[in-house]
Amino acid sequence: MVSLRDESLGATDAAGPTVGVLALQGDFREHARVLGELGARVVLVRRPEDVEGIDGLVIPGGESTVMDKLSRAFGVAEPLKRRIAEGLPVYGTCAGLIMIADTLLDTIEGQRNLGGLDVVVRRNAFGSQNQSFETDLDVPALGERPVHAVFIRGPVVEAVGERATPLATLADGRVVAVEQGNLVGTSFHPEIQGDHRFHEYFLAKVRAAVTAAA
Ligand SMILES: NC(=O)CC[C@H](N)C(=O)O
């Protein structure tokens, strides 16, 4: 169990990369647990100074409108934008995907995003909470075994820009997972389904970025 007070979680092994989890709102504890199990040193990111030492960042599911407001109020939005522009690996799930998308549809007035990912994302594209659903998705980048994906009031990627690539689509062709260089986004929640392949895929990007910078 991860306590709210823990600022540093996961593996103590100094070899693991340091991965921040934006911990202002949403299911950041689940991501912290998965990343820790995979050998990362996990830092909960809430203040500008938390952004400095991280090698990668996960933005959890939750509510993007709230995460946006809190990230600006706590002063982490600007340092995160700067690090993303500099190439920080970021994995956004659900609300996290909304946060890193360049263009948003169905936002509330005044909602902003961190941006970086060359996609158009529509919030709440699958309807209300009780229209949440689960499905098996083919994700060729992660191997042949399908990923069991849990959608909870998730967004959809309505358009994939030139710089981004789809990683998974629903049977009807709608894009629900994308990547672009060091950025990965999923409309669903791998952190709650016990399949760690998306986190492993992201951690490989983090490790490669750390090696490249050394
Ligand atoms: N599970 C989720 O992260 C839901 C996202 C939420 N509907 C939003 O707009 O932020």
What can you tell me about this protein's structure?
The chain is of the alpha/beta class and 214 residues long. The protein has a single domain (8-213), classed as 3-Layer(aba) Sandwich (Rossmann fold). The protein is 27% helix and 29% strand. It contains 6 helices and 13 strands. The protein has helices at 28-37, 48-52, 64-73, 77-85, 95-100, 197-213, and strands spanning 8-10, 18-22, 41-45, 56-59, 90-93, 101-105, 117-122, 133-137, 147-151, 156-160, 165-169, 175-180, 183-186. It has an 8-stranded mixed beta sheet with strand order 1-3-2-4-5-13-12-11. Strands 6-7-10 form a 3-stranded mixed beta sheet. Strands 8-9 form a two-stranded antiparallel ribbon. Strand 2 (18-22), helix 1 (28-37) and strand 3 form a beta-alpha-beta unit. The longest helix has 17 residues, at 197-213. The relative contact order is 0.16. It binds glutamine.
